[in-house]
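Tip: read the tokens left to right.
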């Protein structure tokens, strides 16, 4: 999802003031004195966030079949969810998840002969519930395929601030028709349906059948397979034929008009089917406005590899909240407006997630910068492609104002921790890639890394370590020091310097001794000198009779600068 900021405001600020500090916004890079705190991780959160317990690690989910009736009058769901899985070891108990406020009516299971068998002779399970976890005693031998069937119902949590604070959204459109959606990236899919609610086990496919009443339409991820009407109720059948992150599984219910379109890939010649669902009142402007997605998809294909879901298609669905990267059914609620730079950043950002977050997904949310940082950087790359290098740099400088440096970009593991208010996984994440590009200093290698990392891990879950490994391999260098600074330390490096008129003294501060990022200084706007600063102070002869001004290259690398007269003395002491 998109970070909740006001871009125009930031843009005006950037070009109105050269130095300014407002609440949480800094034109200069800052390392706050005090680190940010983490919330108390309750038992509920631990049960949800700890992905690698024996009750979860012992099986691999291959398929979900959701059958859910939406009762908009009572804001109520009734459903049957079937999960197909394979035992990875001999097991006697498994954990699945469902928020405590939802009622479990029954759970049953069966051993299957194959992945395609539907299963008969279900055995009723005596399950126990503990906070959001459901423990089901079920004996399976290693490699056995089994099915769990859960019948449940209840009033799902209502979203306090969708998509950032998620839950169900029960709205009405301007014509008074129900307009319903759900978001749960922060909370987890078990907010509304029972599942193995982890990010490191995606099903290979999913069927999503949604029943609604009257003349409403239910839209979900993947391909539309058709509808079945029974009296006043209609079931809309959707099918996702690719691995899917569970928080991406979603529904939209309302009165929708369909915009059918297609895109022929300039890369592969394949034809991508496009089916947008919008409120009928917005049909004409939507036709025009949403067409921009095609240019963006074409660009992303070029730099990040093929659109990942040709078999599922692409669609934007008008949502009663701003936006969300729901796989092959992206939520769009930005009012058909372009931002100051001529495109709709919700379409641009959420579509980038099809590559970053959906195609490759972080195996633990502690690495969610792999979704948000990469998607944010993808926006900047689109700006570079369409508007040039200066616009790209301006775009990133605008984002730099939101970098907080209060907590490391990589968060706590096993806590399902994703703080939507912490802009660093977005903006600092993007700046880490921008800085990495400068450090690698070879666009061919840099873009090969991005594309290879995405293509080679298509449909898989990955970690920061996987990315670092590829960067090291492709660049032929060991850049562990770079990532350990930018991902695991909260502070960004500061280049401390002092120019006494004859000599220029400099060193990195807020770094470990392994940090060896090179950086240029620019003399009188013309002469560039490459510095190799370390944590120890160094000296360079720069006479103010020859040059009157020294500038830093901190617009292509993320670091702060600070004048420190004591470097002269420190240098002298080190020489003794
Ligand atoms: Zn996002």
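Filled-in amino acids:
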């Amino acid at each position: 999802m998109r970070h909740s900021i006001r871009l125009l405001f930031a843009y005006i600020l950037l070009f109105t003031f050269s130095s300014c500090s407002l609440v949480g916004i800094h034109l200069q890079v800052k390392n706050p004195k005090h680190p940010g705190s983490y919330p108390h991780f309750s038992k509920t959160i631990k049960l949800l966030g700890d992905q690698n317990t024996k009750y979860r690690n012992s099986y691999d989910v291959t398929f979900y079949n959701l059958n859910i009736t939406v009762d908009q009058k009572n804001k109520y769901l009734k459903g049957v969810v079937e999960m197909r899985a394979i035992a990875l070891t001999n097991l006697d108990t498994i954990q699945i998840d469902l928020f405590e406020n939802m009622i479990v009516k029954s759970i049953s299971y069966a051993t299957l002969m194959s992945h395609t068998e539907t299963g008969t002779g279900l055995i009723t399970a005596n399950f126990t519930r503990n906070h959001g976890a459901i423990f089901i005693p079920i004996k399976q031998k290693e490699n056995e395929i089994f099915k769990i069937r859960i019948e449940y119902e209840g009033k799902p949590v209502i979203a306090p601030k969708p998509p950032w604070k998620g839950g169900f959204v029960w709205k009405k459109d301007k014509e008074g028709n129900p307009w319903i959606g759900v978001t749960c990236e922060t909370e987890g899919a078990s907010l509304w349906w029972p599942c193995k609610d982890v990010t490191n086990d995606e099903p290979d496919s999913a069927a999503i059948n949604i029943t609604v009443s009257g003349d409403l339409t239910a839209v979900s991820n993947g391909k539309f397979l058709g509808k079945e009407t029974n009296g006043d109720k209609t079931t809309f059948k959707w099918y996702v034929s690719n691995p899917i992150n569970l928080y991406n599984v979603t529904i939209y219910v309302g009165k929708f008009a369909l915009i059918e379109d297609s895109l022929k890939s300039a890369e592969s010649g394949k034809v991508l089917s496009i089916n947008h669902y919008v409120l009928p009142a917005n049909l004409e402007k939507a036709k025009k406005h949403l067409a921009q997605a095609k240019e963006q998809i074409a660009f992303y294909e070029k730099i990040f590899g093929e659109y990942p879901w040709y078999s599922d298609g692409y669609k934007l669905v008008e949502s009663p909240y701003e936006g969300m990267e729901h796989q092959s059914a992206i939520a769009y609620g930005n009012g058909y407006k372009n931002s100051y730079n001529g495109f709709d950043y919700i379409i641009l950002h959420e579509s980038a997630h099809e590559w970053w977050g959906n195609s490759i997904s972080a195996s633990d949310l502690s690495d969610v910068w792999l979704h948000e940082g990469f998607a944010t950087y993808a926006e900047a790359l689109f700006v570079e492609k369409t508007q040039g290098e200066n616009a790209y740099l301006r775009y990133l400088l605008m984002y730099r104002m939101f970098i907080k440096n209060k907590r490391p970009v990589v968060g706590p593991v096993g806590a399902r921790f994703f703080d939507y208010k912490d802009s660093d996984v977005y903006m600092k994440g993007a700046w880490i890639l921008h800085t990495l590009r400068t450090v690698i200093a070879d666009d061919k290698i840099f873009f090969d890394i991005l594309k290879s990392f995405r293509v080679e891990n298509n449909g898989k879950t990955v970690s920061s370590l996987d990315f670092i490994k590829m960067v090291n391999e492709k660049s032929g260098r060991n850049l562990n020091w770079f990532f350990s600074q930018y991902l695991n330390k909260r502070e960004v490096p500061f280049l401390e310097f002092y120019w006494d008129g004859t000599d220029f003294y400099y060193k990195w501060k807020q770094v470990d001794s392994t940090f060896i990022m090179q950086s240029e200084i620019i003399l009188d706007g013309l002469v560039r000198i490459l510095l190799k600063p370390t944590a120890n102070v160094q000296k360079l002869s720069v006479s103010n009779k020859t040059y009157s001004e020294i500038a830093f290259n901190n617009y292509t690398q993320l670091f702060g600068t600070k004048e420190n007269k004591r470097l002269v003395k420190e240098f002298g002491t080190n020489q003794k």
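Residues 1-2, 325, 349, 353, 372, 375 surround zinc ion (CB under 6 Å). Residues 16-24 have pLDDT under 50 and may be disordered.
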